[in-house]
Amino acid sequence: MAESPMLRVDDLEVRYGVIEALKGISLEVREGEVVTIIGGNGAGKSTLMKAVSGLEPVAAGRIRFGGTDITTLAGHRRVALGIAQSPEGRQVFADQSVRDNLLLGAYHRRASDADIEADIEAQYARFPRLRERRAQMAGTLSGGEQQMLAIGRALMARPRLLLLDEPSLGLAPLIVREIFGVIRSLRAQGVTILLVEQMAHQALGVADRAYVLETGRITLSGTGVELRRDPRVRAAYLGDH
Amino acid sequence: MVVLLQALFSGLALGGIYSLVAVGFNITHSTTRTFNFGQGEFLVAGAFVAVSGLLLIAGKGVTDPLEQADVSMLAYGGGMLAALVIPGILGVLLYLTAVRPFAGRSGLAWVMSTIGFGVLVQNTALAIWGPSPMVMPSPLGGEVIRIGGAGVLPQEFLVLGASIVVMLVLDTVMRRTRIGKAVRAVAENRNAATLMGIDVSAVVIGAFVVSSALAGLAGMLVAPITTASVFMGLTLALKAFSAAIVGGLDNPRGCMLGGFLMGLLEALVGLWHAELREIAIFLLIIVVLVVKPEGLLGRRRVEKV
Lengths: 241, 305
Hints:
The complex is a heterodimer.
Chain A: E1 7-16, E2 19-29, E3 34-38, H1 45-53, E4 60-65, E5 68-69, H2 75-81, E6 83-86, H3 98-105, H4 113-126, H5 128-132, H6 143-155, E7 161-165, H7 173-188, E8 192-197, H8 200-206, E9 209-214, E10 217-223, H9 224-229, H10 231-237
Parallel strand pairs in A: 3-8, 3-9, 6-7, 7-8
Antiparallel strand pairs in A: 1-2, 1-4, 4-5, 9-10
Helix pairs in contact in A: 3-6
Chain B: H1 2-32, H2 39-57, H3 73-99, H4 109-129, E1 145-147, E2 150-152, H5 154-176, H6 178-188, H7 190-195, H8 200-226, H9 233-247, H10 252-272, H11 277-291
Antiparallel strand pairs in B: 1-2
């Protein structure tokens, strides 16, 4: 059981027309791990997340989740298997209330109303700002609040694997700290996370393991600590010169 | 005054028809950014399927003349079911053959293919029922009701009542229910909806079923007022489309409002100068498009990166 990883990606290729966004990527995420993928703009990080969630068709390679081949499985079915994502740019449903956004996160679950309510409460406890704004349209929230909502919404799916795509994007440093605090506490609760980030320093700080993605290829991998010490990573992503 | 009241009633009834069809445009447009340019022929299908359904219930041939005695309220309900189901099925076929192959691609292939599908429906209707209109008696009879001196057709009440009920139900479903929220999620962001575990393809097919069924219902409701004709679709659908543009194609309530506005405008201007009806409608469209391009209740679209 323990030896087969929860998520396993083998030689994954994704193309947009003639452009090869991912050129044969292999990685894995084991149960209970926080794994991060760092890399610059256009490296293919979001493409990878989309491919894992089934939003982008795969040109070659395989994606396996919990031993099942999900390479061609429809995106909405992957949610039912246990993959939830907080996508890049939040993508909350602006026209719907905070509460309804959270309810949509639990859309696939056949749970009782009481269970769903309890989980909504849990998100409000995790993000007290969302409780204050529960009746507000999500489009009126600040960027940081929308990010909290996007994470809360993904957690409402009760995922086995949580994908976080650039949760710090465009947020003020204070909010970024708060978001990473939440990632830490999720990690402490044993939630398995695949985190894609441009903020390499913070990401490597919470991650058990990390991969460096550059123009569609994985160029480095190791534990978070190892990569933080790696001179190439320091030069390219941690601002050391 | 009496004439005005009369025009008001028929304007509202006609407006109800436009509203139903306009909301149908909204439903598919918000979920797929496409709609059925041949929607008018689905009204035709609804009207004739209902007439034939009523004839079958009365034990007659499907193209026999329909008598008032054949149209009981119960039989009318049966006809209505047929006018919802058959166009609904046509909606699935339309989506699979004329929309899905082209939707999301650049170009306007779907415009031509949906018009083509409509022509197919119309010609099939022509082959079955022929070019001459069929009379469809109202289940409430043809006797004019006097209200404040104004003569109102009973069917006009039925049309108005039915369209209001249907739209209230739709509005409530979209705002209050789990499925309605899922449909709105798909309308706003398909990828994000998929990440919620929503089956976007199923929602989209559902949108075409509902839109087509609404057109079928509208065709059946309007038939006793205008008589069922194979050629009635285009004008009705064009005005319903105008209603959607005026009210705001992306807002279901805007489409409803636009429909009633169109109906009232048409009836009131017609009172004054019948030949100016169409001119007034299209003038209104031009004015609205200039002053508020997104429609009265529409929201300005922000292009997503």
